[in-house]
Design brief:
The protein is mostly helical and about 110 residues long. Helices cover about 70% and strands about 0% of the residues. The protein folds into two domains: about 70 residues, lambda repressor-like DNA-binding domains (434 Repressor (Amino-terminal Domain), Orthogonal Bundle), CATH 1.10.260; about 40 residues. The chain is built from seven helices and no strands. The longest helix has 17 residues.
């Protein structure tokens, strides 16, 4: 996997048109991020974790060998927001099932 290309792909999906936007969100320097994206510099795992947080993905999702679409990214952001509010995966699942049942009744 080309880590730099994956970062660029996710940056653009997050509507960050420039490396500078990612630098602002991650707290990392623009030249450093630019070198990583171009493959001119290695990216330590600790740095990649910071970048992933800024890109709204986990390391697991980053390394999945599949395309991430804008729709998938929006779902990931929504789940993260719910988790930050204290909702567990099981609670989210219960809410979704309840909404599904309510929709079918209408």
């Amino acid at each position: 996997m080309d880590i730099g290309k994956r970062i660029t792909e996710l940056r653009l999906l997050n509507e960050m048109k420039t490396v500078t936007a990612l630098a602002k969100k991650s707290g990392l320097s623009q030249p450093y991020l630019s070198q990583i994206e171009k493959g001119e510099r290695n990216c330590p795992i600790e740095t990649l974790e910071i970048i992933c947080r800024a890109l709204n993905v986990t390391l697991e999702i980053f390394f999945r060998n599949e395309e991430i679409t804008k729709k998938n990214l929006n779902y990931i952001k929504l789940i993260k927001k719910a988790e930050n509010l204290g909702f567990s995966a099981s609670t989210l699942n219960d809410i979704i099932e309840s909404l599904g049942k309510a929709t079918k009744k209408e």
